[in-house]
Design brief:
The complex is a heterodimer.
Chain A (H helix, E strand, L loop, with lengths): L2 H32 L6 H17 L5 H24 L7 H23 L4 E2 L9 E4 L2 E4 H23 L1 H9 L3 H6 L4 H26 L2 E2 L5 H14 L4 H21 L7 H15 L12
Helix pairs in contact in A: 1-5, 1-8, 1-9, 1-10, 2-3, 2-4, 2-8, 2-9, 3-8, 5-6, 5-8, 6-8, 9-10, 9-11, 10-11
Chain B lengths: L1 E10 L2 E11 L4 E5 L6 H8 L7 E6 L2 E2 L5 H6 L2 E4 L11 H8 L6 H14 L16 H13 L5 E5 L7 H16 L3 E6 L2 H7 L2 E6 L2 E7 H6 L1 H7 L2 H9 L1
Parallel strand pairs in B: 3-8, 3-9, 6-7, 7-8
Antiparallel strand pairs in B: 1-2, 1-4, 4-5, 9-10
Helix pairs in contact in B: 3-5
Amino acid sequence: MDFSFATQQIIYGLTLGCLYGLLAIGYTMVYGVLRLINFAHGDLLMVSAYVAFFGIIIFSLPWPLAFVGAAVLTAMIGILIDRGAYKPIRKSPRISALITAIGVSFFLENLALVLIGGRPKSFPTPMMFNGSLTLGQLKIPVLSLWVLAVTLVLLIVVVTIIHRTRVGMAMRALSRDIETVSLMGIDENRVISFTFALGSVLAAFGGVMWCMKYPAVEPFMGVIPGLKAFVAAVLGGIGNVTGAAIGGLILGLAEVLIVAIEPDWSGYRDAIAFCIMIVILLTRPTGIMGENLPD
Amino acid sequence: MLQIEDLHVSYGGIKALKGISIEVGKGEIVSLLGSNGAGKSTTVRAISGLVSIGSGEINFKGIRLKGMSAHKIQKLGLAHVPEGRKIFSNLTVNENLLMGAYNNRDKSDIRSLLELFFRRFPAMDCKREQLAGTLSGGEQQMLAIGRAMMSKPELLVMDEPSLGLAPLVVNDVFNIIEGIRKEGTTVLLIEQNANAALKISDYAFLLENGRILLEGTGVELLNDPRVRAAYLGGAEDKADSDK
């Protein structure tokens, strides 16, 4: 394996890793606040993809408007999922919430199947995201540069919100003690909604960029990326935003590089993530940046 | 300032409060005493909106609190220092205090409240950016009280502020409570340390099995033989003073 081939694969791996990372941040934020694995989070990828698709194809919106619309609508659906499904059982045992999350996931997938149909739709990738730059022997897809840049910016925005703003402070406090936050005169449900909205916006960006990379929009497109993003969140240390991004990158790189080194294994591509998950849970359940929570 | 009338609260079929009536007047320190499981914490949790009221009424400044959520009650000017301090261990000392003033949008006011806290507790000044979880128990209690005071409450409800603290620190806590009252905040104090609580209280209620067993001024209860026997280890004290 020569140098340019390796670099090329690393670029592909990082691109995929960023997309996992964007989704994983949403998982990790909701877990941090509610101790809930929101299994419906992966399906937001599908929601945003459809919104962007219909925005461009049916309503002939210019793509930036369709993408922003996808982010806004996905954020609203994220809030709606919390208010409709999770809020009524906030005080129930955690397992109820987990089962509800799986139910919401199936609901969204099958709702899309009924309303839109199962035939994959080809995503109209805008011209400016096509093509690639050639650097010597390297071919860098323009989309990869966009994915890397957008992910980096969003990660900085999220970390800044969590550590430098009032609502971020409330989110951090909420992750330890919801009841005491309410004693501070803070409407905990508004902070939770904000968390869902923020996570959903990242999922929406991830969804749109995912579609430009793999341009088939279908109701179950969010399942596998969602599960892998969950693995990335666990790998990075669930509850930790930077950890989720790092977990995503490691997962993306591992998947691409292992297949690059041993092409025969390409059929086991999806298994790699879950093998990593098993190893992590056995050796370091708190993940790379996770801390031991007094639970 | 605070009236509780015939309050009943049940948890899943178990009656924690079986009709208690309490009144707290403006500017007073009122104590709620009793052993574990008597219903003290349930009472203050009902006041703050953390548990739902079965029957009966709670009025604060003439406003009916029944059915109101906790964050709205706090905004009326009622701050609650929860049992076990419940500081946000993953936030810094400064951030914990800012959480108490979350709904205050006046930055200069917040700054002066912060300075007031650090003037009152100079030992905390160099720990502003330290994570609150690293503080000692006594410091955490001061922080919990300071955090509640950041909202400039009219009524401060404190649930067992002396629990698990060293005797010297317990003295500090009671001095602080007196100081808070002097500055014009009404205090409702839940305590197991009946002796110390009664010494600073204008009025006190003794709870047992979800009912009020006794009530009276602090001095009256301090001298009540039943209180002495049950809560002050009074029998031996009496014997000592008789010699």
